[in-house]
């Protein structure tokens, strides 16, 4: 059999093409995290269901995708660079037969965007085959990696997710349950894991509950775990509950079973899941995120009112907050920008003339709605400030008389070290400039951010249950200033 037809070995030409796919316009947003998915179902095409689950989680990572399937004897897998629909087709899914599966869609946080870092990671161990999908970032990955190398464990990637896989494969313990418990004692930082063995699926969430992970049930007694509840609805599964912080859940054909629960003294949910990352139709802590984001807009309107004619959003992520701002302020909500949702999916790079057009590749302004108007432009966050200024100019060129920028999150002054590519200190515009300095940089008539207190108030939760590191510099665990490509071979 030709090596390129083996499960897990992508076609070289497909890989080269996918690695060349680069966004044509830089987003002024935090980098996404990753999406993990797992399923146990006796009489279902689990690979196909995993494909559609990953499709629903595509917003969490667009660099690579992979699926691993167990038939009770061995694990077969396939992964490659690119979007879920680019990586998989009928030919790639057909060999992935079994009754349990995990899937992963990646945005790089530790380790660069290349095939060696794509997930799931699949290895053979003394207890049999093992596949791991990981969302998050270990803050002690460097120390754990050194330990593995000193023990003679060979590592093929620069990802902390491979470190997790090898820790489980060769770690202490006579069973997978024991190995997972030991791992949770050793690991620091953020991790949501789907772990596939020969005969079980494990769902693991870090003790701080930094990122979401939920459990769902199919009507035919199958069970599903996913980063977000939106993936459950896509495949017809019903939301059951969230995996608790510090919980290990084992899922077999007999159903789910909690085998360990080791929460920390406090939880520290990522606030950016509420602001931007998770899909607005997903549920966190019993509330649909769309409603929380509308509440953020209402809080923003109370804190930073404006005398204006219309409220518009930077689509699509800021739309709920803009609706809330309009509702609370009484200023009519309107559309002012139309987003080209496919510009980041092309393999064809723009020439110099198109690059000079910049933001126009991604947004078109609705001149009839903007001409002569005083505009409140609502965005959910400003990270580097590299697209907000061009958007303000685009609105002015379309005839807007005034542009008042309102942001439904506080200024981002610190990087994230817990699973989000939030940019470095020098790149963060709010770390370098005052709010007035940012306003001048954007060319806006006014600029205001939602306060941290207002943001947390919009969630309806206790302030002590969140990680606020990117806003305050205070992290729930000890962090280390490292580059995400620190483990790359130079």
Automatic annotation (TrEMBL):
Supply the PROSITE patterns for this chain: GATASE_TYPE_2
Q: Which reaction does it catalyse?
A: 5-phospho-beta-D-ribosylamine + L-glutamate + diphosphate = 5-phospho-alpha-D-ribose 1-diphosphate + L-glutamine + H2O
Enzyme class comes to transferase
GO annotation terms (biological process): 'de novo' IMP biosynthetic process; purine nucleobase biosynthetic process; purine nucleotide biosynthetic process
Q: Which InterPro entries match?
A: GATase_2_dom, Ntn_hydrolases_N, PRTase-like, PRTase_dom, PurF, PurF_N
State where [4Fe-4S] cluster binds: 270, 416, 467, 470
Task: Give the residues the record marks as binding Mg(2+).
Answer: 317, 379-380
In the UniProt record, does the keyword Transmembrane helix occur? no
Question: The Glutamine amidotransferase type-2 domain covers which part of the protein?
Answer: 34-254
- Any idea what job this protein has? Catalyzes the formation of phosphoribosylamine from phosphoribosylpyrophosphate (PRPP) and glutamine.
- Name of the featured protein: Amidophosphoribosyltransferase
Q: Which organism is it from?
A: Chloroflexus aurantiacus (strain ATCC 29366 / DSM 635 / J-10-fl)
Q: Which gene encodes it?
A: purF
